[in-house]
Amino acid sequence: MSGEGGPAPETLVVGTGLIGTSLGLALTAAGWTVWLEDANPEVAAAAAAMGAGSVYGPSGDGSGAGPAIGLVIVATPPLALAETVAGCLARFPAATVTDVGSVKGPVLAGLRERGADVTRYVGSHPMAGSHRSGPLGARADLFVDRTWVIAPHDHEDYDRTALIERVAGLCGSRVVLLSAAEHDVAVAQVSHLPQLISSLVAGRLNTVPYQHLSLAGQGIRDVTRIAASDPELWGQIVALNREAVRAELEGVQQDLADLLAGLDNTTAVRRVIARGREGVTGLPGKHGRDHATIWEPVVIEITDAPGTLARIFADATRTGVNVEDVAIEHDQVREVGYLTLSVDGTEPAARLAAAMAAAGWKLRA
Amino acid sequence: MSGEGGPAPETLVVGTGLIGTSLGLALTAAGWTVWLEDANPEVAAAAAAMGAGSVYGPSGDGSGAGPAIGLVIVATPPLALAETVAGCLARFPAATVTDVGSVKGPVLAGLRERGADVTRYVGSHPMAGSHRSGPLGARADLFVDRTWVIAPHDHEDYDRTALIERVAGLCGSRVVLLSAAEHDVAVAQVSHLPQLISSLVAGRLNTVPYQHLSLAGQGIRDVTRIAASDPELWGQIVALNREAVRAELEGVQQDLADLLAGLDNTTAVRRVIARGREGVTGLPGKHGRDHATIWEPVVIEITDAPGTLARIFADATRTGVNVEDVAIEHDQVREVGYLTLSVDGTEPAARLAAAMAAAGWKLRA
Questions:
Q1: Could you tell me if B221 lies within 8 Å of chain A, comparing CB atoms?
Q2: May I ask the CATH architecture of the domain B185-261?
Q3: Which among A199, A215, A309 has the least Cβ separation from residue B190?
Q4: pLDDT digits (tens, 9 = 90+) for A157-171
Q5: Which of B132, B141, B234 minimises the CB distance to A273?
Q6: B contacts of A133 (beta carbons < 8 Å)
């Protein structure tokens, strides 16, 4: 349970899916000794084959005991976490045990219910992932530059939290300390609520006539982009974070009722739009700017011809104007796309537009 | 009022903002004679200076009458449309009059209330625009490849509708015919509802603590992207399309109540996510594919260094793998970005990833 300067503890990863295996890869790369365990021995073997560590088992010294584990990282599916953490706290009476699930309160509560030794438990949540699952999609750099929340509680000692901060640091993550309850509220606000709202809006498209869909522009696409999500995973997440999610949904329900009640009042409607505009500039923006900037778009018509994007960016680079963001919208009938280069400021955007037009590109409004 | 083959009518554009001036530019480029009028004579003069037509006024022949107008296109702000269209129907007893506003029902109703000659009126809505306003941002190609809705009603004759279809065709747009009521429902469904929902969700961010905002990922950003909209414009749009918007908001209100009522039931929650996933694949996708494909992302870490995007796309082109979509996400602290290249298929994505890694780029999960 040493802090920054001490020797690395022998570490056991329980659950070698995408997250567990990636943690194993990251810690192995940092020189730690990592052991791997999974409900399915073949999955643990696959993780070991990828270089995430060695399969955990009895020591070769004949004692029948395994290696002396100092840290256990539990990375099972969400619903199995409390049970597995409790089991590991019992199996390894000297170890610090952490988990990496996306909802923290239920794990802590589950441990208390089971009378487990929560003084050796530190909940955490590395906010990383990919659309892949299982050990084969794992990467040592999965957690680089990601936010890693650590959720200390009353009954643990600081050295154990410091150990998990050390793990997060080795993985390249940025630590944010929040209580379990605060963490669960935060993810309900910035992740779970948007997901559910996006799904609700997208679900209505099932009853919109095809002719009406032909009027759809980029706005509805943005709002419904994350609706293409995994029902099984989100069923579990909502089940675990139910009360925080319920509070957020009830908040939106109230806001929606207020909007409907005031719909005849143009001033009230304007206020809703203005408030939304204010809220969105509060999202963290680029490189430490506190607020997301609203950039000036330069739109260029492009074809599928090979090398088009390469030539556009070569020409754009020559102008010396910095491109902050990039997006492509595809035309629904003609085989063209519209490439939007976002520029910080009206004047540089005008310069870029003029230069690209001079280079022969077709600018769109 | 001739159809496709006949001589072009002398055309008057009333309201030379972005849309009106762009129409003037497009029709002038097509060889039509276009006259311009605006409540502010300086704005009309600016539009004429851009090449959108000539300022409308008494003929030089001393008769005191203006040119013989065959078509009037009214492009004033939304709330002024019915009054202006009625005025033009009276001023030009031989002309077809159309408007280009984003809500159609109230214009027709306003004309009937005023006892105007609706047999010469054809409502339409070219679905184009840009973040700019006023004549100086106008472009002749503003309407190319855009959807242009024409909303014929019972009391007009087909030749007049055909004339507006001809105008839309000259501007490069694709015509969709919908009744005024259907049009207003359609834009409520695919444009107005997503805008208001996005604004509601974004508005809640004003009360989310800064530390919680640091957990925000791409999902909340997608859902709230269009919240950065103009309160004045949207106040007018909602005021004009109030009942269709109300119906959509009440629909979401019901869906939200159902979700809350079933929140304890994991199967019910999974069904909401699954339904949303289904709905979003109904949005028109690329080049005539009926359904938006869910692509495979290849994520590359990039810096702000000039030429980075150019070199990436040069390397990507060499791989021969087609890039379907592009997006950039900015890191909140380090001066790096994550460029996501979307590829159609796991195998080509793997090939692209391998080739870019071999070329020295840093791939992210």
A1: yes
A2: Orthogonal Bundle (1.10)
A3: A215
A4: 789 999 999 999 999
A5: B234
A6: none
What pLDDT is recorded for position B176? 93
Three-state SS at B79: helix
Over residues B315-350, the pLDDT tens digits come to: 888 888 888 778 777 776 677 888 888 888 888 888
What are the domain boundaries of chain B?
Answer: 11-178, 185-261, 296-364
A53: left (phi over 0), alpha (psi -120 to 50) or beta: left
In this structure, CATH architecture of domain B296-364: 2-Layer Sandwich (3.30)
The CATH homologous superfamily of the domain defined by A11-178: NAD(P)-binding Rossmann-like Domain (3.40.50.720)
Q: Which residues of A touch B327 (CB under 8 A)?
A: 326-327
Q: Where are the alpha helices (DSSP H) in chain B?
A: 18-29, 41-49, 81-91, 105-113, 158-170, 180-187, 193-204, 210-213, 218-224, 231-240, 242-261, 266-280, 308-319, 346-358
What type of residue sits at position B302?
I
Model pTM score: 0.80
pLDDT digits (tens, 9 = 90+) for B185-243: 999 999 999 999 999 999 999 999 988 998 988 889 999 999 988 898 899 999 999 99
- Residue B333, classified by CB atoms within 10 Å of its CB into exposed (0-12), middle (13-18) or buried (19+), is exposed
Nearest CA in chain B to A205: B279
Q: How confident is the model at residue B31 (pLDDT cuts 50, 70, 90)?
A: very high
Q: Are the Cβ atoms of A197 and B194 closer than 8 angstroms?
A: no
Give contacts of B 157-196 with A, CB under 8 A.
174, 176, 178, 182, 185-187, 189-191, 193-196
What is the sign of the dihedral through the CA atoms of A291, A296, A299 and A300? Answer: negative
ipTM: 0.79
B-interface mutation test, from A102, A139, A146, A190, most B Cβ less than 10 A away:
A190
Using the Cβ of A281 and the Cβ atoms of chain B, whether some distance falls under 8 Å is answered with yes
Query: Beta strands A121-126 and A174-177: pairing type?
Result: unpaired
pLDDT tier for residue A3 given thresholds of 50, 70 and 90 = very low
Are A340 and A298 in contact by the 8 Å Cβ rule? The answer is: yes
